[in-house]
Amino acid sequence: MSPSPTRVLVLNSGSSSVKYQLLDMRDSSRLAVGLVERIGEHTSRLRHTCLDSGDTREAVGPIADHEAALKAVAEELTRDGLGLDSPELAAIGHRVVHGGMFFTEPTVIDDAVLAEIERLIPVAPLHNPANLTGIRTAQALRPDLPQVAVFDTAFHTTMPESAARYAIDPKLADRYRIRRYGFHGTSHAYVSRATARLLGKTPEEVNVIVLHLGNGASASAVRGGRCVDTSMGLTPLEGLVMGTRSGDLDPAVIFHLVRVGGMSMDEIDTLLNKRSGLFGLCGDNDMREIRRRIDEGDEEAQLAFDIYIHRLKKYIGAYCAVLGRVDAVAFTAGVGENAAPVREAAVAGLEGLGLAVDPELNGARADEPRLISPAAARVAVAVVPTDEELEIATQTYALVGAGSTPVGNNS
Picking from 49-53, 178-182, 276-280, which range would have the lowest pLDDT averaged per residue? Predict the structure, then answer.
């Protein structure tokens, strides 16, 4: 009798890119990682690394669509003896950005699941179509293999109605599925559990504020392993100041831009999602470049940084109030893991809430989860590298290994 397959391929299909990792779930080791970007352009690029050999290959040239991209990925994996036809491949796990309230857990994909993801396109027009394309292409390549959807929104479905509802007519809200869904949930789930382990406790024992700070940014309040509030809402636009997104905004600004500025809805959508945030404030959305400009005395960059930090502090304070007791604040993602000045500024002046960082610990770099707060601090401040691919693989393998195939939950 042959051993059960233990490998999971994780696919993250964006509008013009595919990120992928192949993992062996016996020890959660990575066998291969890669990225296909600029799909549909003449300058498409595929970068593939086999972790066993350390061999990295890169190819530049036209890749017409996601089907061609995934076929190219399959060819690269085959060159390393890790092809999609391998009997050791247990499943393919897909990141899906929006699952609404229907999907509260990882789900084996069937026609009904695909139809529901498609129905959610109006509330995730930039993400769900690309996710669907990746799923359908992978199904065509391996129709016999379990395909699992892991939803960015699922972790946040535990929010109470008092946090998830907007203060508008409930019947209208329900008709058009208007509520706060939250995003980055895979990261928030992983980091909140990793923070508990760092403290030597179980997730059920701790209350954690997770700050996922990348080009997209979100905060969550996690009580006993369950999300009770998060900063993103109906879409990823709400909440913190981000690389190119405005975050929280008086809704009347939109009316004003239409009536007084003569702008169309599409123009405003582009403004708030792609030309606001740090980029809109100072022309840069790379925190490293902003800090370099600040060091040179650039006032525009300094103001952008100050606005970014002010919003971040507001959410930390708000989630201290929501949770009542906070055991840890965890910084993660590109900015959260690498920008020591952001972490220092975010908790400066919050000593009354039990928050502080040790300058030496905060300035040190490491790839592992670590505490950066003083030993006597009432609230732990941590840097916890996120690993969304491992989280997706873990959830996918747990589902397939258990033989359970849930197709959604209306609760």
Answer: 49-53
For residue range 123-178, list pLDDT tens digits in order.
777 788 889 988 998 999 899 999 999 999 999 999 999 999 999 999 999 999 89
pLDDT digits (tens, 9 = 90+) for 369-386: 999 999 989 999 999 999
Tell me how far apart the alpha carbons of residues 70 and 246 are, in angstroms, rounded to a whole number.
34
Q: Residue 386 pairs with which residues in a beta bridge?
A: none
Is residue 152 part of the annotated active site? The answer reads: yes
Distance, CA of 314 to CA of 317 (rounded, Å): 5
Give the mean model confidence (pLDDT) for residues 42-55. 91
Euclidean distance between CA atoms 155 and 152, whole angstroms: 7
Pairing of strands 370-371, 217-223: unpaired
**For the stretch 350-377, what's the b/e string if a residue is b when 16 or more beta carbons lie within 10 angstroms of its beta carbon?**
beebbbbbeeebbeeeeeebebbbeeeb
Is residue 318 exposed (0-12), middle (13-18) or buried (19+ Cβ within 10 Å)? middle
Asked if residues 5 and 401 have their Cβ atoms less than 8 Å apart, the reply is no
Q: What are residue 57's DSSP bridge partners?
A: 48
Could you identify the residue written with the tokens 């899906």?
96
Which residue out of 152, 229, 327, 387 is catalytically annotated?
152
CA distance 342 to 338: 9
